[in-house]
Description:
By secondary structure, the protein is α/β, with parallel strands linked by helices.
Amino acid sequence: MSRFDVLTVGNAIVDILSRCEDDFLVDNGITKGAMNLIDAERAEKLYALMGPAVEASGGSAGNTAAGIASLGGKAAYFGKVAEDQLGKIFAHDIRAQGVHYETKPEGTFPPTARSMIFVTDDGERSMNTYLGACVEFGPEDVEPEVVAQSKVTYFEGYLWDPPRAKQAILDCARIAHENGREMSMTLSDSFCVGRYRDEFLDLMRSGTVDIVFSNKQEALALYETEDFDLALERMARDCKLAAVTMSEEGAVILKGGERIRVEATVIDKLVDTTGAGDLFAAGFLFGYTQGRSLFDCGRLGCLSAGIVIQQIGPRPFGSLSEAARDAGLI
Protein backbone atom coordinates (compact mmCIF):
# COMPACT_ATOMS: atom_id res chain seq x y z
CA MET A 1 0.00 0.00 0.00
CA SER A 2 1.12 3.55 -0.75
CA ARG A 3 0.89 6.19 1.96
CA PHE A 4 1.32 9.02 -0.56
CA ASP A 5 0.39 9.53 -4.18
CA VAL A 6 3.15 12.05 -4.91
CA LEU A 7 6.19 13.27 -2.99
CA THR A 8 7.55 16.54 -4.36
CA VAL A 9 11.05 17.85 -3.67
CA GLY A 10 12.14 21.43 -4.28
CA ASN A 11 13.22 24.87 -3.17
CA ALA A 12 10.99 26.10 -0.34
CA ILE A 13 10.36 29.72 -1.31
CA VAL A 14 8.01 32.49 -0.23
CA ASP A 15 6.90 34.48 -3.28
CA ILE A 16 6.54 38.26 -3.09
CA LEU A 17 4.44 39.32 -6.07
CA SER A 18 3.99 42.81 -7.48
CA ARG A 19 2.76 44.28 -10.75
CA CYS A 20 5.05 46.39 -12.93
CA GLU A 21 5.52 47.78 -16.43
CA ASP A 22 7.93 46.30 -18.97
CA ASP A 23 10.11 49.41 -18.63
CA PHE A 24 10.74 48.54 -14.99
CA LEU A 25 12.25 45.19 -16.03
CA VAL A 26 14.50 46.85 -18.59
CA ASP A 27 15.61 49.61 -16.21
CA ASN A 28 16.55 47.08 -13.52
CA GLY A 29 18.20 44.47 -15.72
CA ILE A 30 15.56 41.78 -15.11
CA THR A 31 15.21 39.06 -17.76
CA LYS A 32 11.51 38.87 -18.59
CA GLY A 33 9.83 35.49 -18.15
CA ALA A 34 12.85 33.84 -16.51
CA MET A 35 13.93 32.78 -13.04
CA ASN A 36 16.91 35.00 -12.21
CA LEU A 37 19.08 33.83 -9.29
CA ILE A 38 20.16 36.77 -7.11
CA ASP A 39 22.22 37.38 -3.96
CA ALA A 40 21.07 38.90 -0.66
CA GLU A 41 22.11 42.45 -1.64
CA ARG A 42 20.18 42.32 -4.92
CA ALA A 43 17.17 40.87 -3.08
CA GLU A 44 17.13 43.83 -0.68
CA LYS A 45 17.44 46.32 -3.55
CA LEU A 46 14.60 44.82 -5.61
CA TYR A 47 12.35 44.51 -2.57
CA ALA A 48 12.84 48.22 -1.86
CA LEU A 49 11.83 49.05 -5.46
CA MET A 50 8.67 46.92 -5.46
CA GLY A 51 5.24 48.44 -5.44
CA PRO A 52 2.40 47.04 -3.29
CA ALA A 53 3.04 43.33 -2.97
CA VAL A 54 1.33 40.07 -2.03
CA GLU A 55 3.22 37.38 -0.09
CA ALA A 56 2.38 33.77 -0.93
CA SER A 57 4.15 30.51 -0.18
CA GLY A 58 5.55 29.16 -3.42
CA GLY A 59 8.45 27.21 -4.82
CA SER A 60 7.72 25.10 -7.89
CA ALA A 61 7.47 21.67 -6.26
CA GLY A 62 5.64 23.10 -3.24
CA ASN A 63 3.00 24.51 -5.58
CA THR A 64 2.65 21.10 -7.21
CA ALA A 65 2.19 19.39 -3.83
CA ALA A 66 -0.45 21.94 -2.85
CA GLY A 67 -2.25 21.37 -6.16
CA ILE A 68 -2.30 17.59 -5.70
CA ALA A 69 -3.73 18.00 -2.20
CA SER A 70 -6.38 20.41 -3.53
CA LEU A 71 -7.44 17.75 -6.03
CA GLY A 72 -7.88 15.25 -3.19
CA GLY A 73 -4.55 13.43 -3.56
CA LYS A 74 -2.14 12.45 -0.80
CA ALA A 75 0.94 14.64 -1.10
CA ALA A 76 4.26 15.00 0.73
CA TYR A 77 7.01 17.58 0.37
CA PHE A 78 10.74 17.93 1.10
CA GLY A 79 12.24 21.43 1.14
CA LYS A 80 14.44 23.53 3.44
CA VAL A 81 13.44 26.70 5.29
CA ALA A 82 15.06 28.65 8.15
CA GLU A 83 13.71 29.21 11.65
CA ASP A 84 12.41 32.67 10.79
CA GLN A 85 9.09 34.35 10.01
CA LEU A 86 9.03 33.43 6.32
CA GLY A 87 9.95 29.85 7.22
CA LYS A 88 7.01 29.66 9.61
CA ILE A 89 4.70 31.08 6.95
CA PHE A 90 5.87 28.50 4.41
CA ALA A 91 5.49 25.54 6.81
CA HIS A 92 2.06 26.69 7.96
CA ASP A 93 0.76 27.22 4.43
CA ILE A 94 1.84 23.88 3.00
CA ARG A 95 0.60 21.92 6.01
CA ALA A 96 -2.69 23.81 5.93
CA GLN A 97 -3.12 22.48 2.38
CA GLY A 98 -2.98 18.96 3.80
CA VAL A 99 0.56 18.20 2.62
CA HIS A 100 2.93 16.10 4.77
CA TYR A 101 5.93 18.35 5.53
CA GLU A 102 8.51 17.47 8.18
CA THR A 103 11.83 18.76 6.80
CA LYS A 104 13.84 20.15 9.73
CA PRO A 105 14.42 23.95 9.60
CA GLU A 106 18.02 25.18 9.20
CA GLY A 107 18.69 27.64 12.07
CA THR A 108 18.27 31.35 11.35
CA PHE A 109 20.98 31.87 8.71
CA PRO A 110 20.87 31.74 5.79
CA PRO A 111 17.26 32.99 5.90
CA THR A 112 14.28 31.37 4.19
CA ALA A 113 14.35 31.77 0.41
CA ARG A 114 12.25 34.43 -1.21
CA SER A 115 11.41 35.29 -4.81
CA MET A 116 10.51 38.78 -5.95
CA ILE A 117 8.09 38.17 -8.82
CA PHE A 118 7.22 41.05 -11.13
CA VAL A 119 4.02 40.48 -13.11
CA THR A 120 3.53 42.54 -16.27
CA ASP A 121 0.23 43.42 -17.95
CA ASP A 122 0.46 40.38 -20.25
CA GLY A 123 0.43 38.08 -17.18
CA GLU A 124 4.08 37.08 -17.68
CA ARG A 125 6.10 36.66 -14.50
CA SER A 126 9.76 37.49 -14.06
CA MET A 127 11.24 35.85 -10.98
CA ASN A 128 14.22 37.06 -8.97
CA THR A 129 15.10 34.39 -6.46
CA TYR A 130 17.38 34.47 -3.43
CA LEU A 131 17.82 30.80 -2.51
CA GLY A 132 18.87 31.36 1.10
CA ALA A 133 18.21 28.27 3.22
CA CYS A 134 17.38 26.19 0.13
CA VAL A 135 21.10 25.66 -0.54
CA GLU A 136 21.35 23.72 2.73
CA PHE A 137 19.02 20.95 1.50
CA GLY A 138 20.97 17.70 1.33
CA PRO A 139 20.90 13.91 1.72
CA GLU A 140 20.20 14.14 5.46
CA ASP A 141 16.83 15.73 4.64
CA VAL A 142 15.62 12.72 2.67
CA GLU A 143 13.02 10.69 4.60
CA PRO A 144 13.54 7.19 3.11
CA GLU A 145 10.22 5.83 4.35
CA VAL A 146 8.31 8.68 2.68
CA VAL A 147 10.06 8.08 -0.65
CA ALA A 148 9.41 4.34 -0.39
CA GLN A 149 5.72 4.94 0.33
CA SER A 150 5.11 7.44 -2.50
CA LYS A 151 3.86 6.26 -5.90
CA VAL A 152 5.81 9.01 -7.67
CA THR A 153 8.63 11.26 -6.41
CA TYR A 154 8.80 14.52 -8.35
CA PHE A 155 11.52 17.15 -8.21
CA GLU A 156 12.08 20.53 -9.84
CA GLY A 157 15.01 21.21 -12.16
CA TYR A 158 15.65 24.38 -10.16
CA LEU A 159 16.87 22.11 -7.35
CA TRP A 160 19.88 21.22 -9.50
CA ASP A 161 21.35 24.65 -8.61
CA PRO A 162 22.20 23.92 -4.93
CA PRO A 163 25.06 21.36 -5.14
CA ARG A 164 24.19 19.12 -2.17
CA ALA A 165 20.63 18.74 -3.40
CA LYS A 166 21.84 16.68 -6.37
CA GLN A 167 22.92 13.82 -4.12
CA ALA A 168 19.63 14.01 -2.23
CA ILE A 169 17.73 13.67 -5.52
CA LEU A 170 19.85 10.70 -6.61
CA ASP A 171 19.20 9.08 -3.22
CA CYS A 172 15.46 9.59 -3.72
CA ALA A 173 15.66 8.00 -7.18
CA ARG A 174 17.51 4.97 -5.82
CA ILE A 175 15.04 4.47 -2.97
CA ALA A 176 12.03 4.99 -5.25
CA HIS A 177 13.21 2.45 -7.82
CA GLU A 178 14.24 -0.07 -5.15
CA ASN A 179 10.63 0.05 -3.96
CA GLY A 180 9.03 -0.22 -7.40
CA ARG A 181 8.11 3.48 -7.51
CA GLU A 182 8.64 6.09 -10.22
CA MET A 183 10.75 9.24 -10.43
CA SER A 184 9.67 12.44 -12.17
CA MET A 185 11.14 15.88 -12.85
CA THR A 186 10.23 19.21 -14.39
CA LEU A 187 12.81 21.03 -16.50
CA SER A 188 11.74 24.27 -14.72
CA ASP A 189 12.83 26.90 -17.27
CA SER A 190 14.95 27.26 -20.41
CA PHE A 191 17.77 29.02 -18.54
CA CYS A 192 17.91 26.13 -16.07
CA VAL A 193 18.05 23.76 -19.05
CA GLY A 194 20.92 25.79 -20.50
CA ARG A 195 22.92 25.35 -17.29
CA TYR A 196 22.34 21.61 -16.95
CA ARG A 197 21.44 20.25 -20.39
CA ASP A 198 23.87 17.32 -20.36
CA GLU A 199 22.99 16.34 -16.80
CA PHE A 200 19.24 16.49 -17.46
CA LEU A 201 19.60 14.36 -20.58
CA ASP A 202 21.67 11.84 -18.61
CA LEU A 203 18.95 11.64 -15.93
CA MET A 204 16.42 10.84 -18.64
CA ARG A 205 18.51 8.45 -20.73
CA SER A 206 19.85 6.51 -17.75
CA GLY A 207 16.34 5.84 -16.44
CA THR A 208 17.02 7.79 -13.24
CA VAL A 209 13.94 9.83 -14.20
CA ASP A 210 10.85 8.10 -15.61
CA ILE A 211 8.45 11.02 -16.21
CA VAL A 212 9.47 14.46 -17.53
CA PHE A 213 7.51 17.71 -17.56
CA SER A 214 8.50 20.53 -19.90
CA ASN A 215 7.09 23.49 -21.74
CA LYS A 216 7.72 24.17 -25.42
CA GLN A 217 10.62 26.58 -24.84
CA GLU A 218 12.36 24.18 -22.46
CA ALA A 219 12.01 21.29 -24.91
CA LEU A 220 13.56 23.38 -27.69
CA ALA A 221 16.37 24.48 -25.36
CA LEU A 222 17.04 20.90 -24.22
CA TYR A 223 17.69 19.73 -27.78
CA GLU A 224 19.15 23.01 -29.05
CA THR A 225 16.75 23.21 -31.96
CA GLU A 226 14.01 25.45 -33.34
CA ASP A 227 12.17 22.39 -34.72
CA PHE A 228 9.50 21.53 -32.15
CA ASP A 229 8.54 18.23 -33.81
CA LEU A 230 12.17 17.15 -33.69
CA ALA A 231 12.40 18.08 -30.01
CA LEU A 232 9.27 16.03 -29.27
CA GLU A 233 10.64 13.07 -31.23
CA ARG A 234 13.89 13.13 -29.28
CA MET A 235 12.18 13.56 -25.93
CA ALA A 236 9.92 10.59 -26.61
CA ARG A 237 13.04 8.54 -27.33
CA ASP A 238 14.91 9.73 -24.24
CA CYS A 239 12.33 9.07 -21.51
CA LYS A 240 9.49 6.69 -20.72
CA LEU A 241 6.80 9.37 -20.44
CA ALA A 242 6.76 13.13 -21.05
CA ALA A 243 4.20 15.91 -20.89
CA VAL A 244 4.97 19.10 -22.81
CA THR A 245 2.84 22.21 -22.29
CA MET A 246 2.28 24.80 -25.02
CA SER A 247 0.44 27.67 -23.27
CA GLU A 248 -2.85 28.43 -25.07
CA GLU A 249 -2.22 25.53 -27.47
CA GLY A 250 -2.64 23.00 -24.67
CA ALA A 251 -0.27 20.11 -24.14
CA VAL A 252 1.10 17.00 -25.79
CA ILE A 253 1.74 13.75 -23.96
CA LEU A 254 4.54 11.51 -25.26
CA LYS A 255 4.83 7.79 -24.58
CA GLY A 256 6.81 5.66 -27.02
CA GLY A 257 5.31 6.29 -30.43
CA GLU A 258 2.14 7.87 -29.02
CA ARG A 259 1.46 11.60 -29.18
CA ILE A 260 -1.67 12.61 -27.30
CA ARG A 261 -2.86 16.19 -27.83
CA VAL A 262 -4.87 17.94 -25.12
CA GLU A 263 -6.66 21.26 -25.62
CA ALA A 264 -6.02 24.14 -23.24
CA THR A 265 -8.77 25.05 -20.78
CA VAL A 266 -10.72 28.10 -21.92
CA ILE A 267 -10.25 30.97 -19.46
CA ASP A 268 -12.00 34.30 -18.88
CA LYS A 269 -8.88 36.41 -18.33
CA LEU A 270 -5.15 35.77 -18.01
CA VAL A 271 -4.02 37.40 -14.75
CA ASP A 272 -0.71 35.80 -13.74
CA THR A 273 1.13 32.81 -15.24
CA THR A 274 2.99 32.09 -11.97
CA GLY A 275 2.50 28.42 -11.11
CA ALA A 276 0.96 27.36 -14.44
CA GLY A 277 3.47 24.58 -15.12
CA ASP A 278 3.48 23.55 -11.46
CA LEU A 279 -0.28 23.12 -11.43
CA PHE A 280 -0.28 21.31 -14.77
CA ALA A 281 2.11 18.78 -13.19
CA ALA A 282 -0.18 18.56 -10.15
CA GLY A 283 -3.24 17.72 -12.24
CA PHE A 284 -1.36 15.28 -14.46
CA LEU A 285 0.30 13.43 -11.57
CA PHE A 286 -2.95 13.29 -9.61
CA GLY A 287 -4.64 11.60 -12.55
CA TYR A 288 -1.63 9.37 -13.20
CA THR A 289 -1.48 8.07 -9.63
CA GLN A 290 -5.23 7.41 -9.73
CA GLY A 291 -4.80 5.21 -12.79
CA ARG A 292 -6.48 7.56 -15.26
CA SER A 293 -5.81 7.55 -19.01
CA LEU A 294 -3.00 9.77 -20.24
CA PHE A 295 -5.56 11.93 -22.06
CA ASP A 296 -7.50 12.48 -18.83
CA CYS A 297 -4.25 13.18 -16.98
CA GLY A 298 -3.52 15.90 -19.52
CA ARG A 299 -7.03 17.34 -19.17
CA LEU A 300 -6.65 17.48 -15.39
CA GLY A 301 -3.32 19.22 -15.87
CA CYS A 302 -4.73 21.81 -18.27
CA LEU A 303 -7.73 22.45 -16.01
CA SER A 304 -5.51 23.02 -12.95
CA ALA A 305 -3.18 25.33 -14.89
CA GLY A 306 -6.12 27.21 -16.39
CA ILE A 307 -7.53 27.91 -12.95
CA VAL A 308 -4.32 29.20 -11.37
CA ILE A 309 -3.48 31.63 -14.18
CA GLN A 310 -6.74 33.49 -13.56
CA GLN A 311 -5.55 34.66 -10.12
CA ILE A 312 -2.52 36.29 -8.51
CA GLY A 313 -0.23 33.73 -6.89
CA PRO A 314 0.90 30.17 -7.61
CA ARG A 315 -1.52 28.14 -5.49
CA PRO A 316 -5.26 27.85 -6.20
CA PHE A 317 -7.57 29.79 -3.89
CA GLY A 318 -10.52 27.48 -4.48
CA SER A 319 -10.89 23.69 -4.44
CA LEU A 320 -9.45 22.02 -7.53
CA SER A 321 -11.38 18.84 -6.72
CA GLU A 322 -14.67 20.75 -6.98
CA ALA A 323 -13.59 22.30 -10.28
CA ALA A 324 -12.56 18.88 -11.61
CA ARG A 325 -15.90 17.40 -10.57
CA ASP A 326 -17.78 20.25 -12.24
CA ALA A 327 -15.77 19.53 -15.43
CA GLY A 328 -16.65 15.83 -15.20
CA LEU A 329 -13.00 14.80 -14.72
CA ILE A 330 -13.29 13.12 -11.30
